[in-house]
Structure formats: C-alpha cells, structure tokens
Amino acid sequence: MAKIYVTCRVFADEIDRLREAGHEVIMRSQEGPIGRDDLLGHISDIDALICLLSDIIDAQVITSSPHLRIIANLGVGYDNIDVPTARERGIVVTNTPGALTETTADLTFALLLSAARRIVEGDQYVRDGKFLGWELLQKHLGQDVFGKTLGIVGMGRIGTAVGRRAHFGFGMSVFYRSRHRNIGAEQELGAQYTSFEEILKKSDFICLHTPLTQETHHLFDRNAFRMMKKSAILVNAARGPVVDEEALVWALESGQIAGAGIDVYEHEPKIHPGLLKLKERVVLAPHLGSATVETRRALAKIAVDNVLSVLAGNPPLTPVD
C-alpha cells in the first residue's frame, strides 16, 4: 500500500479508484491554494503527490519527501515543479497534455470576442438599467473580428486550436511565432511563421500560448507594447509572467493598445490594482482556461492513471519532456 497526498479537492470517483487499488489517500478539502507549511506538513512520508500548477513543488518540498515516487501535476504546464531535482532523486513527473487543448482554445476566443465586442461592459450597462434602446452611435461600439489578423505566440496544441477557430470560423489571417515551425498549421491554416517583431506590428489581435521560460518571462514589456497597433487587443491564456503586468496597465491606460482579455496573472492570485480599475475593453477571468466539467474530469483521470501506473511498477503514461 502506498500513501498519496492530493493538494486540492478532486472528483470523488477518482479518489475511489486510488483507494480501491489499496492505497491510502489524504485529500485536502479546503478551498484556495495550499499554504507552504501545510504542504510541507503532509509530504514527509508520502509515495505520490497529486498537485496543482499553483503549488510550488521546489527542491525543499521534493527533498522533504524521501519516499516520493511520482508528482502528478493537474495541468499541462509544469514550471511550478523543480523537475531537475525530481529527476536526480528518481521521481517521475507527469502532466496532462492534450486534455485541455480545445477548451482552452474556446476560452481564448471567448476572451478575444468579449474584449473586442465589449460584452462584459454591455452586460453591466444593461443590469444597471442604462440601456435606452438601439442607437447608431451607441456607447459600446467595439471592433470587428472577422477578417482581421491574428498573431499567435506559441503554436503548440492550444495555439494551433486557436488558429483553427480564427481561420475557419472568422476568416482571419494567422501569423505565428514559436520555438519550432509548425508545418502542419502552415499547411492546414495558411499560418505564416514570422518574427516576434512582425507579430507585434501586424496583428489586430495577439493570443499567447507559450510556456513560461527564462526567454518568455516578461516577453511582453513596454517595448513590445510600443510596437503593437494602438487598435490591438492582447489575450493571455498561457502564463501570467509572460506579460509584465505593470507594463500592460501602462499600455492600456495610455492607449498604446486598445484592450486585453486576461485569464492568468503575473502574481496569481494577486492582480495588479491598475488592471482591476480598467473597465473598457478589458476582460479579466479567474484562470478559467480548462474550467469545464469534462476537461477537469479528464485532468483528474490522467493524473490518477499516472499515479496508479507508477505505483504498480509500470511506466508513467504522460511523463514531462
């Protein structure tokens, strides 16, 4: 029998699968992110850890758990985990690739459309009793999306799925920048591989789907915003620190760019107070990228499958690269 610690609430049927396999499972029941002391207090004698991308699994955490065999991250990204330290100690690290591709692409386009067409502002306007009827020059005039130019930074699974929606659904021209050329996307979507600077200069909308690395940290700073069209809208459904949040507030307040749809934040769950004050053409979501019942169930299933496989002495199903 192995001991498994789960840092968040998980679907009961998935926890049952672990217990039916003969393992002891301790699941944290509180809402919100787990505190550092709470995490360290539960891992000294565990064999497996199921965690969130918001849980910082650094060298101290890893070395505090001498029996740990697998860290199963509930998400695609794993920049929250010290993977080199885990590997040095023979600990498997897994993620959940593919499970959230389409739903995150849906959310990306929801943010794009909401910011462009000022849906959130309009909703509040109606609820406040201010809507007096249709006018030609009414208050919430937005921007067309159909036929515009979309720049995608990070053309992996999610970026490609966003490109499909843009190309086939909205007749958009797609430009992209990524660590590697995506020939499949070029052939399927007519997507054009170009420089980061050209993405900034040409795009009416820019969607971020790049992982967080040393190279992408604060990729969007004041210099980047200065190169963007003043009519452009930025959508970030990747990682918060890819965008310098203070620079984003400056760009929006000064009219350097027209708007933003943001699902992730630089110091999540804290949000720059300047962003919270901005109402026009700015849509803020509470990290909803994968937040559908179907997708969250899929994430939990993949994580549990990985844990069961490793604890049974078999290879992991989705080890990180």
Overview of this protein structure:
By secondary structure, the chain is of the alpha/beta class. The chain folds into two domains: 3-97 and 293-311, 3-Layer(aba) Sandwich (Rossmann fold), CATH 3.40.50.720; 101-284, Rossmann fold, CATH 3.40.50. Helix content is 37%, strand content 15%. The protein contains 13 helices and twelve strands. It has helices spanning 12-20, 36-40, 59-63, 83-88, 101-117, 119-127, 157-170, 183-189, 196-202, 222-227, 245-253, 273-277, 293-311; strands spanning 3-6, 24-27, 48-52, 70-74, 92-94, 149-153, 173-177, 192-193, 205-208, 233-236, 259-262, 282-284. The strands form two sheets. The chain has a seven-stranded parallel β-sheet with strand order 8-7-6-9-10-11-12, sandwiched between helices. It has a five-stranded parallel β-sheet with strand order 2-1-3-4-5. Helix 1 packs parallel to helix 13 and helix 5 (101-117) packs across helix 7 (157-170). The longest helix has 19 residues, at 293-311. It is globular, with a radius of gyration of 21 Å. The relative contact order is 0.14. The model has no long low-confidence stretch (mean pLDDT 96).
Quick structural overview:
By secondary structure, this protein is α/β, with parallel strands linked by helices. The chain has helices at 12-20, 36-40, 59-63, 83-88, 101-117, 119-127, 157-170, 183-189, 196-202, 222-227, 245-253, 273-277, 293-311; strands at 3-6, 24-27, 48-52, 70-74, 92-94, 149-153, 173-177, 192-193, 205-208, 233-236, 259-262, 282-284. The strands form two sheets. It has a seven-stranded parallel sheet with strand order 8-7-6-9-10-11-12, sandwiched between helices.
